[in-house]
Amino acid sequence: MSNSNSKTLRALLDGDTAVLAAGVHDAFSAKLAESIGFEALFMSGYAVSAVVNAKPDWSFSSMTDFLGVARNVVNAVDIPLICDVDQGFGPVTNLIHTIQSFQRAGVAGVVVEDQVFPKQSCYEDGRELYPVQQAAARVRAACEAKEDPDFILVARSEASRMEGPGATMRRFEAYLAAGADYVIPVDCEIEDLSRYCKELPGRVFAFGGAHSESLDLDEVGVKAILHSADTLLAAHQAMETLYRELLDKRKLSPEFYLAHPSKYPDELDAVLDQPYWEAVRNRYEEGR
Predict the structure, then answer these.
(1) 187 φψ region: left (φ > 0), alpha (ψ -120 to 50), beta (else)
(2) Closest by CA position to 83, among listed 39, 158, 23
(3) pLDDT digit string (tens) for 95-129?
(4) What single string gives the DSSP state of each residue in the chain?
C-alpha cells in the first residue's frame, strides 16, 4: 500500500532546511495553515484531547477520537499530516492497530512516545516510562506493522529531564536500531537538543516553542519542527475575550471590533473554497 502523503513528507525531509509543521486541531485549522503556505501539519494529542473531549492530556481520548480528527484533516487538505498517537493507546497490540489505522487514513507519519499508558502531561512530575528494552520492542512492533514503506515513525522520549541526556541518547539509539525513522525529545534543555542532533545527524525532530526563541533549529540540524498547541492557545485567547464581552454587555459593539479586529465572512469563505464550490454547484445545477 502506497501513501502519496508519506512520499511527499519524505521528499520534504530530504531538503536542506527543517520541515516546519503547523500545529492543527481540526479540519479548519489545517485548511487555514495550508492556505497560508505551510507544507506540512502536526496534530498533537494535547489539542485533540482539549477539542474533542475538553479534558487534559491524560489518555482520556481514544484512538477513535484521534483518528476521527486525523481523517477530517487529511480529507480537507493536500499536504502531509503527522499525528501524535501517544503510546498507541495501550498494550503493543493496540499500538500495532493504531499504526495500521492511521496509515489507512492517509496520515503521512506518527509520533509514538515511551511513556506508560495511561499517560500524564509531559510537564508533570511522576511520569513512568517503559524500560528501554520494552520501549524499543514496541517501536520495532510499530515499524513491522507498517504497510507503506514511506510511512514515517518518529519515536518520542520523555527521558531527558527524568533520566538525563545520556540515558535519553541510549534510548534514541535503541529506538533507531529498532526501525524508527526519527526521534524527538520532550522537555529537554537546549544544549541537550544540540547534543542529540550532533550525535544523531539527520535523525532528530524538535518541538517548536521555547527552543526556537533562543536557538536556530535549522542551524542545529533538526529535520523537522513540530508545533503543537500554539494555534489552539491563540484561539482560546480570542474566543475567551469575545465570550466575556458578549456575556458582560449582551452584545458586541463596533468599539469591541475596533479593539479586537476579526476576519470578515468572505475571508472565511475563501479559506473554505466557497468560490470553487459555487462554480461546481452552478455547473451541475444548470446541467452543463
Answers:
(1) left
(2) 23
(3) 999 999 999 999 999 999 999 988 776 666 667 99
(4) ---HHHHHHHHHHTSSS-EEEEEESSHHHHHHHHHHT-SEEEE-HHHHIIIII---TTT-S-HHHHHHHHHHHHHH-SS-EEEE-TT-SSSHHHHHHHHHHHHHTT--EEEEE-BPSSP--TTSSS--B--HHHHHHHHHHHHHT-SSTT-EEEEEE-HHHHH-HHHHHHHHHHHHHTT-SEEEESS--HHHHHHHHHHSTT-BEEESSHHHHHS-HHHHT-SEEE--SHHHHHHHHHHHHHHHHHHHHSS--HHHHHHS----HHHHHHHTTHHHHHHHHHHHHTT-
What pLDDT sits at residue 283?
87
Least confident of 74-88, 123-137, 207-221: 207-221
Please list, residue by residue across 95-114, b when 16 or more beta carbons sit within 10 angstroms of its beta carbon and e when fewer do.
bbebbebbbebbbbbbbbbb
- pLDDT tens-place string over residues 203-212: 999 998 754 5
- Answer yes or no: 218 catalytic: no
Under 8 Å between Cβ of 181 and 154:
yes
Whether 214 has a pLDDT exceeding 70, the answer reads no
CA torsion 69-188-79-265 (nearest 10°) is 60
Catalytic residue among 14, 16, 57, 150: 57
- Residue 2: the pLDDT is 52
Separation between Cα atoms, residue 106 and residue 150, nearest integer Å = 12
